[in-house]
Amino acid sequence: MVPSILYPEGIEKIPVPLEDHGFVTDLNLDQVFAALSVGREQLDLQPVLLAPLEHLDLVAYRHEVLADFERPPLAEAARTFGKSMHQVRELLAAAGKLHNRWQQERLFLEAISGYCEGVGALNGALSQLGPASRALRALTEYLQAYSSGDLASLAEEVDEIAGTLGKLRYGLHIRGARVTVSAYGGEPDYAQEVGAAFAKFREGAVKDYRASFRSLLDMDHVEGQVLNLVARLHPGPFGELDRCFHAHQGFIDAGVATFERDSQFYLSYLAYIEPLRRAGLPFCYPTLSLTPGRTLATAAFDLALAAKIANEGSGEEVVTNDLDLGPQERAVVVTGPNSGGKTTFARAFGQLHYLASLGLLVPALEAELVLADRVFTSFQQAERLEEARSHLEDELVHLSNVIEGATPRSIVVLNESFSSTTLSDAAVLGKAVLAKLLSRGALCLYVTFVDELASANDATISVVATVDPEDPVVRTYKLARKAPEGRAYAAALAERYGLTYHGVEEQVAR
User: Fold this and answer.
1) In terms of residue numbers, what domain contains 176?
2) CA torsion sign, 347 to 348 to 353 to 354?
């Protein structure tokens, strides 16, 4: 059986990619996933990144593999193997573009040789390092059997053919536009004789007048004809090359190909978070449960935003926040001034739960979470004139579908819902949506300008984006669990219509 380092042996059902994954864009996880795929496009990691896990054992299985890959020697062995396989695939792609049959088959032979060396090196490294995870132990046993059997036979065959081809000699006679290819009859190598003849005239450093040959891989028609004639002179070795080419079209073993892709799921993520770890940002293996209970996140942060700040090298500080909910607290209402970090906090909340459901390290110092079966989002979108329905109608239809699909293990992130309507309507609709979601048992985070939603019921808590007490204009981007300040809606309206102090000041100055 082909081992998988993503799913344990005997799993009844492998998760399939989600059809509706708009939440990925809302949470800016699309930026993270795009970065993970750079340079790995041929491996297509998206189906794995869009298929959350449903069982705790599957998460534990991936945590074990991650812990193994956090060991530098093991990670380096897997990275080296990945590079060798990338080169193999580049050789195969290049061979497919060539016009000369024999050149194509020789490059194919080189690809097989590189494959055998890469798999052999991986097998040796895993056997020596002794991984601890169930997944990599099973892979080690698989590679040991494969390397001593089919791979060894393939490597021996390829080495023999390549060695024979490398020893071939032929004569080339060029006279005017006529090129003659003949069997090698022991003639001297004139290139060496000419080189030796002129070597005695060298006096120190001289200007190099030699012409450079083309670096193009593909042959021109003369080179191709020469190679065809050489093949006619040596039908035996070239016949073996042709046989090998047709016999081993699918030479990459299924287990090896599976590991090549699956290992990049882990390695790309570890590489992505490495600069953030060096900058002092925390990552942890979350404690997960299948039943709703305490929700804890200490020093959590928006992963996509942190990566953007690190890539830009601006030196800007990544602000972390904490959240601690009791088992009966199922809704977090976030209020406060605009540009105070509310949406960033909401994205971090959703990212934590979704990354945890993939079996990955999460951006926090400590985390206790439910293993989410779905992550739903509803983020404020600009109204499009070409749509027949109004923005509010679209929003209500979407939220109706969210409520219908939500379960006690679902995470719902609402950002500025009903901002297109009046305060009183937003309050009525917001209370109704929260009540429905809580009746389904879902865990909800609601960013809103309607302060009264924060006291809608006993299952709801209030979190406020704070400002500098010495200068309320300065945002701290820290969020605190406390009662709303009662100015969120007024501040939102004032900012929207340019009626803040600075806005009015600018208008007067004009």
Assistant:
1) 169-199+220-230
2) positive
pLDDT at 383: 47
Task: Identify the band that residue 187 occupies on the pLDDT scale cut at 50, 70 and 90.
Answer: confident
Q: What's the predicted TM-score (pTM) here?
A: 0.86
Question: For the chain, what is the domain count?
Answer: 3
Asked if residue 370 and residue 482 are part of one domain, the reply reads: yes
Residue 185 tokens, joined: 């009859």
Q: SS3 for 21-40, per residue?
A: CHHHHHCCHHHHHHHHHCCC
Q: What is the dihedral of CA 445, 447, 448, 453, to 10 degrees?
A: 20
pLDDT the model gives residue 215? 46
Q: Which of 59-71 are b and which e, b meaning 16 or more Cβ less than 10 Å from the residue's Cβ?
A: bbbbbbbbebbee
Q: Are residues 420 and 295 in the same domain?
A: yes
- As beta bridge partners, residue 367 has 297
Q: Is residue 294 located within the same domain as residue 353?
A: yes
Tens digits of residue pLDDT in 17-60 = 998 889 999 999 999 999 999 988 888 999 999 999 999 999 99
Cα angle 5, 18, 63 (rounded to 5 degrees) comes to 30
Single-letter amino acid code for the residue at 177: A
